[in-house]
């Protein structure tokens, strides 16, 4: 049952990604509204109004002022990374195809795997690598179908530039996703979204004033463009709000593997909206990706017991020592045990997390 719920939650995120891709493609191609910073700015403003204000009225340690005093510069760096990740990927829609953006965005998966291994100390089993390999094989089937059908019409030499933008954005997304997983599992979802809304709206507003103020004046505003902007903002706000919920239940790697099906949804929409050609390999790739997700989700990962990773972000000098709960097979919630690195602790069992 948990496996089905996990798969279903991942598909909700995939549908939101598909909706974001379609609205971005329409804005860039049909209406020539090349405003990636403005699109992200609208989302950060919504995050600020909902989550940053929630932190502002909270009392105690989770208050906005208390968080800023303890770790403001870390959230500032995270906010800039997230802004530029969105900017690079949204900018790429002006230079390359929808399918290319979706396929190359899969580069985020190896980035997340490596960062989770080295910084979150997550350790994987053979079944996880098999599941990841199957998911990437499914993506390979889509690439093969695109090649056999002659590919989509490119944008000349600009397509290479667009593909490089996607790869850069995927790398930054990987960093942001790993940070998000750590924060929502060890701090709180509202703190992550509230601080992202604060610094995201501030720095994206500066970037908007510098880079896109003239582009906004060139937009031929009408009800269709307005509706697309509203739709994009709603979809992105929903994605940002819902992804931490799924990530706390699973992991950054699992979430990004689930998002691979967004490529299929985009291609299926393209059959009707952009008159893409159909190939049976698209269906085959969909089933291979789902099979890979089943393999990956069938077993839990575990975290090496190293307290330094879990204390460095909190940055609290007067924090009372954490008393680890007894290891009990009936404990269902994932926990992390803070232990010393002394030799007598080497026989401790690793703690499993979902």
From TrEMBL:
<feature type="transmembrane region" description="Helical">
    <location>
        <begin position="190"/>
        <end position="211"/>
    </location>
</feature>
<feature type="transmembrane region" description="Helical">
    <location>
        <begin position="223"/>
        <end position="243"/>
    </location>
</feature>
<comment type="similarity">
    <text>Belongs to the SLC35F solute transporter family.</text>
</comment>
<feature type="transmembrane region" description="Helical">
    <location>
        <begin position="129"/>
        <end position="148"/>
    </location>
</feature>
<dbReference type="InterPro" id="IPR037185">
    <property type="entry name" value="EmrE-like"/>
</dbReference>
<keyword id="KW-0813">Transport</keyword>
<protein>
    <submittedName>
        <fullName>Solute carrier family 35 member F1</fullName>
    </submittedName>
</protein>
<keyword id="KW-0812">Transmembrane</keyword>
<dbReference type="Pfam" id="PF06027">
    <property type="entry name" value="SLC35F"/>
</dbReference>
<keyword id="KW-1133">Transmembrane helix</keyword>
<keyword id="KW-0472">Membrane</keyword>
<dbReference type="GO" id="GO:0016020">
    <property type="term" value="C:membrane"/>
</dbReference>
<feature type="transmembrane region" description="Helical">
    <location>
        <begin position="160"/>
        <end position="178"/>
    </location>
</feature>
<dbReference type="InterPro" id="IPR009262">
    <property type="entry name" value="SLC35_F1/F2/F6"/>
</dbReference>
<comment type="function">
    <text>Putative solute transporter.</text>
</comment>
<feature type="transmembrane region" description="Helical">
    <location>
        <begin position="33"/>
        <end position="51"/>
    </location>
</feature>
<feature type="transmembrane region" description="Helical">
    <location>
        <begin position="102"/>
        <end position="122"/>
    </location>
</feature>
<feature type="transmembrane region" description="Helical">
    <location>
        <begin position="255"/>
        <end position="276"/>
    </location>
</feature>
<dbReference type="InterPro" id="IPR052221">
    <property type="entry name" value="SLC35F_Transporter"/>
</dbReference>
<dbReference type="GO" id="GO:0022857">
    <property type="term" value="F:transmembrane transporter activity"/>
</dbReference>
<feature type="transmembrane region" description="Helical">
    <location>
        <begin position="282"/>
        <end position="304"/>
    </location>
</feature>
């Amino acid at each position: 049952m948990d496996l089905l719920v996990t798969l279903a939650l991942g598909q909700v995120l995939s549908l939101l990604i598909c909706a974001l891709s379609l609205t971005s493609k329409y804005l860039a191609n049909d209406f020539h509204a090349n405003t990636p910073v403005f699109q992200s700015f609208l989302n950060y403003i919504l995050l600020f109004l909902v989550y940053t204000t929630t932190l502002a009225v909270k009392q105690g340690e989770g208050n906005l002022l208390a968080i800023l005093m303890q770790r403001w510069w870390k959230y500032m760096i995270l906010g800039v990374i997230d802004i530029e990740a969105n900017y690079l990927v949204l900018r790429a829609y002006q230079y390359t195809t929808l399918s290319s953006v979706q396929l190359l965005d899969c580069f985020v998966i190896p980035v997340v795997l490596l960062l989770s291994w080295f910084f979150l100390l997550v350790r994987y089993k053979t079944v996880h690598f098999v599941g990841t390999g199957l998911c990437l094989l499914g993506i390979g089937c889509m690439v093969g179908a695109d090649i056999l059908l002659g590919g989509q019409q490119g944008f000349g030499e600009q397509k290479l530039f667009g593909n490089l933008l996607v790869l850069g954005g995927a790398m930054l997304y990987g960093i942001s996703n790993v940070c998000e997983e750590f924060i929502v599992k060890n701090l709180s979802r509202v703190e992550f979204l509230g601080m992202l809304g604060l610094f995201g709206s501030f720095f994206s507003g500066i970037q908007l004033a510098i880079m896109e103020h003239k582009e906004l004046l060139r937009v031929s505003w009408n009800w269709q463009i307005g509706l697309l902007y509203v739709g994009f903002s709603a979809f992105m706000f929903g994605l940002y709000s819902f992804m931490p919920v799924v990530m706390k239940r699973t992991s950054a790697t699992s979430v990004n593997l689930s998002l691979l099906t967004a490529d299929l949804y985009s291609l299926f929409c393209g059959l009707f909206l952009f008159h893409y050609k159909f190939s049976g390999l698209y269906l085959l790739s969909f089933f291979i990706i789902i099979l890979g997700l089943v393999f990956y989700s069938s077993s839990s990962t575990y975290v090496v017991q190293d307290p330094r990773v879990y204390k460095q972000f909190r940055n609290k000098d007067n924090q009372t020592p954490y008393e680890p709960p007894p290891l009990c097979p009936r404990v269902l919630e994932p926990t992390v045990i803070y232990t010393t690195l002394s030799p007598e602790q080497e026989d401790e069992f690793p703690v499993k997390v979902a």
